[in-house]
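---------- Forwarded message ----------

FYI, see the PRTRC system protein A record below. Original note from H. follows.
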Amino acid sequence: MNPIDTALQSVTPTVMVPRHEPFVPLQANGHRFLAASDGLWLEARRPWLYLCWPLVRQEKVAMPYGTLKQTLSAVPVKSHLMDEFIIMAQEVYPLECAAWVVWDEVTDDQTLLPMVPTSATVASVVFQRPRLQAGQHLLLDLHSHGQLGAFFSGQDNRDDRGEFKLAGVLGRVNTVIEAKFRLCANGLYVTLPDRIYGQRPQTLERTYERAFHPF
């Protein structure tokens, strides 16, 4: 086999799910593909994430493999950081803004890290990605849409394609705030529950806790 193919398959293998013994989940950080009785699945582990999710389902061909359980488990985002981002988005309205929620696997602390824009308009925001310290992880990538509704654009899809992270967008931040969230998994996008919020900060905490405990 070509050495490049050997290296690629060793880093991201495809594993047959056993039919007659228990499936052993991925233990180390990384990701792999799983051939199951009903199709092809993606399995990924990060310090803050475990994912086992179908990519292609099929029932026509009998596959001699076992079954899998759809699983998504992630570190929950602290709700007060969402409150901080809402204030940040309202302060720069009608321009867009962006921030990261960064999680430290050693201390278990979470921090809202505002992105310094190189340009910001009512329809876009551009920034240079910061360098995180060892043990720090991008947990949630946030941006606002000012007066527009909440949605993930084609540019968002391109930007998020090669990453494992949670992503969120807030829309209509000057009125009743819309919010959309998803898990980005190397080009797979798993939609998380949408939310619409009023502007009273005291009502946000419980709602955001529900938004980030959907699993």
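H. also flagged this: The CA atoms of residues 83 and 202 lie 9 Å apart.
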